[in-house]
Amino acid sequence: MVSLLLAIIYLIFVSLGLPDSLLGSGWPIMQADFGVPSSYAGYVGMTISGMTIVSALFSTRLIRRFHTKWIVIVSIALTIFGLLGFSFSSCYGMLFLFAVPYGLGAGAIDTSMNHYVANNFPSSVMNFLHCFYGVGAVISPNIMALALRYARWNEGYRWTAYIQMGILLVCILSLPLWKKNAQSEKKESTEGAGIREAIGQPGVIATLISFFAYCAGEATCFLWTSSYFVGVKEGVSEEMAASFGSLIFGGLMLGRLISGFISNKAGDIKLIRIGIGIELAGIALIALPLTPWIPAAVGFFLVGSGMAPVFPAIQHMAPEKFGRRFSAAVIALQMVFAYVANTCMPMAFGHLQQQVGIWVMPFYLLFFAVLNIGFMEISERRVKALKAAYQLHKQ
């Protein structure tokens, strides 16, 4: 029964990744259909991100009041409504209307599932979980590519909605499987702390800054890797540079797969330290002033592999580090900081590279990698000091 529930949870994270890549892959054709500038994709993306932040902020209240399975079902249903709405949109303004359920569905399911897994499963499951998110994010551009080849961009959203409907049906049929942890969830829902109370706990703010720094580096790589090769390396065609955009995704998926097998033995904090060490090695390769593109390509793959365990490990350690009472609120805050970083920091780098040059990218990544590990170590020391003082007081 537990194995079957895990399979459902992995499927839920595939569904979470599915809608995330559709806008970027379909926008060149959508833009032409709507007759708007290419930059207008950013406004739609920011609306989706804004709604995701709102739902993440309210997710602690939802987790207190409802079982995770109901949050999952309603969230997937909202996403389906948003996808179908996009597919039927006949003008640019309609996208903003359907961006609301599109974003609201993502934030609540992300926070509630990360909280559920962090409290009920080992670290390996969290790493595999985020690997499956990557599977969904890789599948959806291919769905859009098929739609553009054989139909129109509208069908890309519609076909993805149909897949989400199938996943929703599986989730509804799996409702009895969630009974195992229903009692512990009920206890957490009555004892769980709110966001204001959680943010005052020692080490929480440092963890949030660390998490923000991680997401800033990751999101910047997602958007600007291909542009870096075009702007800095010789002999790289636009087609080749576009394929290099998958280096980070490939590194993340492989890194999380490997982390899933070793995380229970290594532990979360050790995985983060090893991961950031690998990331720093990758950044050093990217920064080498060499004309050939191969060292930089290896570097970006290493950056993705090193980043891989950081996100799952920070989220998984929340219940043990801050206590189960605060874990839902801490994870919700982490997701808010993640979405803010994903929305703002790639844009900030865009302005920076416009003024300085895209060669500055490895140094931008280095800044956030150091910020990531630095504030994580500060958080660890504060929590350890608090626990040591508590043990001394008990004696």
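The record above closes out task 2.4. Task 2.5 opens with a second protein, given below.
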Amino acid sequence: MVFRLGCLVKVIIIFLLLFLFLIVILNSTWFLKIIYPEPYKEIVEEVSQIYQLDPYLIYAVMRVESKFNPEAQSKKGARGLMQLLPETGSWIARELKYESFDVDKLFDPEYNINLGAWYLSYLNKQFDNNTVLVIAAYNGGETNVKKWLKENIWSGNISDLENIPFKETREYVNKVLTDYETYKKIYEK
């Protein structure tokens, strides 16, 4: 009985030490940087300056949209790192006065990040730099978000995300905001 009790105490101590070790590791900056990387850093830094965006917002959107897979394609046809629909990509290309638009270029990281960042910047202007509204509009559509606000369906505040009519958009806003805050926590100096 004494032998079993001694073994049990050792097992509990080892378990507690492993648990403590895991907590320290999982909350360490170097580990979090593995889970929240900064791929395409030069491109993201350049477009964030051009379009006056926080680069961590771009990373958060890319992480949620495509998990940084430049070849990602949704069931609805959204493509690339920032998951732009062909119609949206074509409209942005016209707004940027590009001579032509090729839907396959949405798989090109530089092209896709540039268009996606421009769109985030555009939404920033439409929604007075309200990041919650920008993220909701990126997923649920600018027109829908304006309608929800106008009809008092949603206040646009993070505190009442449950009032967003689209479940996908509610979850999306929550994920992107969580990732955005995590990126800022890890990388801001």
